[in-house]
Amino acid sequence: MLRQTRWLTVAALLGAAVCGPAVSPAHADPAGDAQTLYCAKPENKRPLVDTAVALGLAGRGTHDKPLKVNGRDYAVKDWQQAFPLDFGRACAALVAVRKLPETSSGWTGELVKTVIGLIPVGVGALLALGSGMLTTRKASAERAAGELHAAATAYERACRDCLIAWRRGQGRSLEGAMDAPLSGLLADLQRRKSRHPRWRLERLITAIRILDRDIREADWPTEPARLRQDAQRLLDRLEARHSDVMEVVSRLDRPWRWYGPVRTEHDETPP
Fold this sequence. Notes:
271 residues, mainly alpha, 2 domains, 3-stranded antiparallel β-sheet, 9 helices, rod-shaped
């Protein structure tokens, strides 16, 4: 009796071992089930079809059966049953692209998203403002440099014509042509002096006044050789003063560069 009981127990265990896997429920896959349910939604069928076609898993079918495989049209549900692996691949790709709808983070999350979205707009506005300011400043600097350059050139030409005429003993009649260019040049330098007090333009203004006075009050000799020498000395001084003004023009045109103080010759400095 005991031996019979043992054999019945062994048989029961063997039967459970053999039949157990067949009747046990399949292993659950929550993530896969979620993807399947997501892709089965009516609003996601068309994107799923587009994904399958893009991946080369199927071709375009008809309106009712949008997927074509091996010359046969399938509805999405039929295609899922006939090609479960292809369906799973297309569904996973669609979910990966969309990253599944995230849960709402409330008003704080929306605020953060709004702020983050405004950052590029703010940066773009600041860049545009800075660019506009730089453009305006550059245009103003170029205009100021051009005005001073024109005034300096007009005065230098009038003085040069007068001094060259003096070489022939005819300069007195051309001194009057220096008046208007001198006034224009000095007025422009005074404006630059008020706007750029650290540039030490007063010394340059005084040096130009002294040069103009020396040209007008020169005691010109009658000997041709001495006349040419005196005229050339004044021409050299005129060239030096013109170079000093051109340095100011360069400062105005390139305000970002570093410059030292405006320099003039020592013999032009008033006592």
